[in-house]
Specification:
Layout (H helix, E strand, L loop, with lengths): L1 E5 L2 E10 L5 H15 L2 H4 L8 E6 L9 E9 L10 E5 L2 E10 L5 H11 L8 E6 L9 E9 L3
Antiparallel strand pairs: 1-6, 2-4, 2-5, 3-4, 3-7, 6-8, 7-8
């Protein structure tokens, strides 16, 4: 766990509004990932910086117990072309606590890590938290994923 400052960035991807209540987010996020992979969304995102996938939690109603939006997409250079059905959003510069998750993504490793994060006293801002699926996440059974949680100060 380390504290870092992330500069502003732009993302284009697909999104859904969900909540952690009654297991709804597990269903919605699973369906969003399925759509992202099965419809080849990665290849449809224009002006990508690279092929790293970002899973971003934003537009929180209040905290992690209330509704929020998840965007699954990639960092982009600009919003010159936004495909129909996709979401474009700019995220401001912010302070984050970085967690490095190592484990089997097919066995709930991401949810398990978030369960631990939710119990921590992190002084969260609930602006935008995100997971980064880069080269080290190519093998889901033995992946490394960076998780960034927005905090008030470094």
């Amino acid at each position: 766990m380390e504290k870092v400052k992330i500069e502003a960035f732009k993302v284009i991807g697909i999104s859904v509004r969900t909540t952690n209540e009654n297991g709804q987010s597990a269903k919605d996020i699973g369906e969003l990932w399925n759509k992202f992979m099965s419809e080849g969304i990665l290849n449809k995102i224009p002006n990508k910086v690279d092929n790293t996938i970002y899973s971003i939690y934003t537009d929180y109603e209040s905290d992690h117990l209330k509704p929020y939006t998840i965007i699954l997409g990639c960092k982009v250079e600009n919003f010159d072309a936004i495909p129909e059905g996709m979401t474009a959003k700019t995220f401001n510069t912010g302070n984050y606590t970085k967690f490095v998750l190592k484990g089997d993504l097919t066995k709930g490793a991401v949810f398990a890590e978030w369960s631990k994060i939710w119990e921590m006293d992190l002084q969260r801002t609930y602006t935008a938290d995100f997971e980064v699926y880069g080269k080290k996440a190519q093998n889901p059974a033995n992946a490394e994923v960076d998780i960034f949680v927005a905090i008030k100060e470094i």
